[in-house]
Every structure is written in structure tokens, then in C-alpha cells.
Amino acid sequence: MEITLVGTGTGTPSIRRNPACILFKLGNKNAVFDSGPGTIRSLLAAGVDYTNIDLVFYTHLHLDHVSDFSAILFAAKIPPETRKRPLRVYGPSGLKAYYKHITELYGDTVCPDSYKLLLEEIANKDIDIDGFIVSTKTLEHHDGGMGYRVTEPGGKVAVYTGDTDYCEAAVGLSRNADILIAECSFPDEIKMKGHLTPSSAARLASEADVKKLVLVHMYPVCDSYDLISCCKKTFAGEVIVGEDMMKFELKQEVLL
User: Fold this and answer.
1) Tens-place pLDDT, residues 13-56
2) What tens digit of pLDDT does each residue of 204-235 get?
3) N or C: which end of the chain has fewer CB within 10 A?
4) Alpha-carbon distance 239 to 232, whole Å?
């Protein structure tokens, strides 16, 4: 399982960080988790164009996480590189209604005619993607957010929280994960309901007993703070401040 932090930022423009997008390579499939503004361009730097996306997973339907859904559908219809392979899109309750609104607004320009589009709402469900088990749990965000836990066939686990505040559901989702990719929207000095700070992200990582904590979804104000030192007060494991295009690979240990 390979993971690329395509966008570690938010809806507030930043030269340093693109909006929310995490790329998972699940075997031979490219799975995009969230697609904030500019995602299809940012994905090119990670070696994936809009015709090579196999799966899209949405944590919630706020614009900084979902706005490039329309762009993906629009680009898929532009010749000569019209999309042929099926596209599966998963998300929380409301995903199908959101797609209906998109089609009502943009009409045929986003309606697939050369490929099959499959939409499924999977809040608090498990699905199997070629042996990779993707589990979901509703977390604590303004209109409801959904976190994802991905378990590869060998047992390694990666968790992506999406937007959430500290909650027991997030602890349960993250339990014993090899890598926890957690939002960290604001420093402790600027606590906003529905979002994590370094201290609450560290508390989550510590209580869930994860191995590695990677911070993403940081508003520009976070760049002026020492987020790692704050996390280390609570969490003894490795802490990384995520940067765009940072890569991680989860490999199974070979026992001889």
C-alpha cells in the first residue's frame, strides 16, 4: 500500500499546500480520498491523470474536499482522452443527492456516456477492494464527517480521518493503525469546533496506540507554530507534519 499526500491544505489558499487529497495505491488501483479544488492538476505531479483514477472516496461534502468531483467528470468526457474504464465513487449519506445536483447544474457535460459511473453511500460500512478492506465510521464534524480505515491483505493499516474533532469514534477507527493521517486544522491557541489541533490529534493517536501520526489539512496559520513539539507532549510515537507530495509505503515484514 502506497500513500501520497497530494494536498495537505484546506479551503484557504496557500502557496505551500494544495487542498485536501490523499492518493492510495491499493494493489494496481489508484484510489483518491477527497478531491479539493485543483486536485486533478495536483494528481499529475503524483503520476496519476484523471483517466487513471479507479476509485474516489469522500469523507464529507464540503467544497474543500469534494469540489473537483465535477472537474473529474468533466475532464473524462473531453476527447481524445475520453474515459473508458469504470469509475467507482464512495462517500457519506448525501453523495447521490450531491451528484444529482451536479448533473442538474452542468447537464450532459458531466454525465458519463463512454464509461460506467458507480456511486455508493457507505457510512459505517466495510467494503472489499481486491482484498483491501476499507472501513468507515461517522466522526464528529459540522454536518457529519466520515473517516476511513484501510487494511491491506497482509494486515497493515492506514487511517485517514478527514475532518473531525476528537471523539471516541475516531479512536476506535484508528486503533493500532500503522499510520494515522489526521487533520490538524488549527494550533491549540485557535480551537475550532469540529476540527483537531496538535494536542487533540496527539491525544487521538496516543489513545488509539498508533505507530505513526501524520498531520494534514492545516490552515496557513499552522505554518507559524511548532506542531510536532506540541504533539510530543502527549504522543510518544513518530509525528510528521505532512507536506504535499510526501510519500509513505506500508510493507509487510519478511520473517526468515
Assistant:
1) 999 999 999 999 999 999 999 999 999 999 999 999 999 999 99
2) 999 999 999 999 999 999 999 999 999 999 99
3) C
4) 8
And the C-alpha cell for 49? Answer: 491523470
Closest C-alpha among 158, 155, 201, 204 to residue 177: 158
Give the separation between CA 118 and CA 97, rounded to whole angstroms. Answer: 14
CA distances from 31 to 150, 153, 185, 201 (A): 11, 16, 23, 24
Strand 179-183's sheet: what is its strand order?
A: 126-129, 132-139, 145-151, 157-160, 179-183, 212-216, 238-241
Separation in Å, CA 80 to CA 7, 47, 53, 117:
28, 19, 17, 19
**What value, to the nearest 5°, has the Cα angle with vertex 107 and ends 7 and 63?**
25
Ramachandran region, residue 16 (left: φ > 0; alpha: ψ -120 to 50; beta: rest): alpha
Residue with cell string 501524520: 214
Q: How many CB atoms lie within 10 A of CB 94?
A: 15
Our measurement of the distance from residue 159's CA atom to the centroid of its chain's CA atoms, rounded to an integer in Å, reads 9
